[in-house]
Design a protein that fits this description.
The protein has 128 residues and is α+β, with helices and mostly antiparallel strands. It has two domains: 79 residues, Glutaredoxin (3-Layer(aba) Sandwich); 43 residues, no CATH class. It contains four helices and six strands. Helix 1 packs parallel to helix 3. Keywords: Transferase. One of its GO terms (molecular function) is glutathione transferase activity. InterPro entries: Glutathione-S-Trfase_C_sf, Glutathione_S-Trfase, Glutathione_S-Trfase_N, Thioredoxin-like_sf.
Length: 128
Amino acid sequence: MPIDFYYLLISPPCRAVMLTAEAVGVKLNMKELDIFKGEQMKPEFVALNPQHCIPTLVDGDFVIWESRPTCSYLASKYGKDDSLFPNDPRARAEVERLNYFDMGTLFHRFGEYVVSGDAKTGRLNLYQ
């Protein structure tokens, strides 16, 4: 059964899931959504993911969104060993600690540095 993956290529979280799928040998059925055109608000997508966000992965009757738990799911279910998501509680805690640090601190701060914009106009300024 194919694994559907709803994504936007410019999204770093989406690319993280794509890299994890590649690392564990999972072929994704790629379904790009243009969030700038509001495609994530279509009723058929909202029925899958009521938070209407990407990345979203559909594996049979299981639907998951948010990149970090999606990567953990792929590594746990499809990984040939536990090298990406360890079974050992201490090693797994370290992976989770780094994921939470990325989510709560690093990704946000990096985004503030690289991308700024005007909330009223939606205009973005990208720094290189």
